[in-house]
Design a protein that fits this description.
Blueprint: H1 2-24, H2 26-50, H3 53-81, H4 87-115, H5 118-155, H6 189-219, H7 224-252, H8 255-275, H9 280-298, H10 311-339, H11 342-370, H12 385-396
Helix pairs in contact: 1-2, 1-3, 1-10, 2-3, 2-5, 3-4, 3-10, 4-5, 4-7, 6-7, 6-9, 6-10, 6-11, 7-9, 8-9, 8-11
């Protein structure tokens, strides 16, 4: 129930959070949604200490509103500040630090709770969120400092000389048009295909992680610590290797081809886990490698197929599609597991992975015929900087 509340609030909020970030700015998004995270976790921790289930759910809901949009804001900041050959590397570094929290949770949370108490472990996580808020404040100060220097540079620009020899007045640079909600209608087919691929692939990973520990204990005889350690390998690989894969992707491109290979490996891994005697350690290693490859490649596709002013909205839509689909798959997996068993659950994951393979193949064909950006080596994206300026001028006219 707690995960459902978190997931549902996350899904609903990101539908509009990205638009708010594009409209009001990254500083607004960072401060606002990190505040939601801190408040939600504080309520959750206090409710856990007092064993108040209603307020536990309320805290989880507020936390969900903040975290999903904070992730969107984080990715939007990356997309605005890192372009071309740096984009996938930047996303890889973000993923690496994000997965650090997952790794710490898998390997240390139960030990901390056992050595102290569940309440202490929960409050420790809340304290980490306030520590994260300090970094948002630092980002805010850096952002304002950059804007101040940008204004100083503009004021010092040399103005062109008029015909009579006197300097002409310097015209301020026109600001890019803010996104409008109806701009979503103009999103290209490639964007929607990338969003669906992301949802399909992540639906093979996160719902599996949710049941993997129980499966290894019930079906393979693992202890609780062994099962947690094995499942944590997925995030451990992502934490260490995402930056290196991001750098490789920036160099060679081939984002969709790498995603296609990763989805195929994931499909085979789910078959191996249930229908062969292969060790679960091998399976989680394969899934971890696939997850690392896809996470580093697919998210860097989004800024390539939308305009810069639309990045936050685009990322929020992809996140909403992903969260909504994962919520549905979690429910389906729970029903199938209760009524049939783990082999049938594995078939669900295999079917989703196969659909991901098919859709990625279709997207490769579409990209080759229309823009050759997602699977090519062109790092500028569909909308070049000059085209962005031209479109902005047309909008203002």
């Amino acid at each position: 129930m707690m995960y459902s509340v978190y997931s549902f609030s996350n899904f609903l909020s990101v539908c509009f959070g990205g638009y708010a970030i594009d409209k009001l700015g990254h500083v607004f998004g960072g401060l606002t949604f990190q505040s939601f995270v801190c408040v939600g976790l504080s309520i959750f921790s206090a409710a856990c200490a007092n064993k108040n289930y209603l307020w536990i759910l309320i805290g989880r809901g507020i936390y969900g509103v903040g975290l999903g949009n904070l992730t969107v804001c984080q990715n939007a900041v990356v997309s605005h500040n890192f372009k071309g050959k740096e984009l996938a590397l930047a996303f890889g570094l973000v993923i690496s630090f994000s997965r650090l929290g997952s790794v710490l949770n898998f390997y240390f949370s139960s030990d901390i709770a056992a050595a102290t108490s569940i309440s202490f472990a929960v409050w420790l996580g809340t304290a980490m969120s306030f520590f994260s808020f300090l970094f948002v404040v630092v980002f805010t100060l850096l952002n304002r400092r950059r804007d101040r220097y940008a204004c100083m540079d503009e004021s010092m620009d040399v103005s062109p000389v008029s015909e009579v020899g006197a300097p002409s007045p310097v015209k301020p640079k026109a600001a890019g048009r803010k996104i409008k909600l109806e701009d979503v209608k103009s999103f290209r087919l490639e964007f929607w295909l990338v969003g669906c691929i992301t949802a399909l692939f992540y639906a093979c990973i996160f719902p599996f992680v949710a049941i993997a520990t129980d499966y290894m204990q019930e079906e393979r005889g693992f202890t609780e610590d062994e099962a947690s350690s094995a499942t944590g390998v997925i995030y451990l690989l992502s934490m260490f290797f995402s930056p290196f894969l991001g750098k490789l992707i920036d160099r060679i491109g081939k984002r969709l081809l790498l995603t296609l290979i990763a989805a195929s490996v994931t499909m085979c891994a789910h078959v191996m886990l249930v229908f062969t005697p292969v060790s679960p350690w091998v399976v989680v290693f394969l899934i971890g490698c696939s997850y690392t490859v896809t996470a580093s490649s697919i998210w860097s596709c989004v800024p390539l197929v939308v305009r810069l002013r639309e990045v936050g909205t685009a990322l929020s839509l992809v996140t909403a599609i992903q969260m909504g689909f994962i919520s549905c798959i979690n429910a389906i997996v729970g029903i199938v597991k209760e009524k049939t068993g783990y082999p049938q659950v594995s078939l669900v994951f295999c079917s989703i992975a196969f659909a991901c393979v098919v859709l990625t193949s279709v997207t490769i064909v579409v990209d080759k015929r229309r823009c050759q950006v997602l699977n090519g080596t062109d790092k500028s994206g569909i909308f070049s900087e000059n085209e962005e300026k031209g479109l902005t001028a047309q909008d203002e006219a």
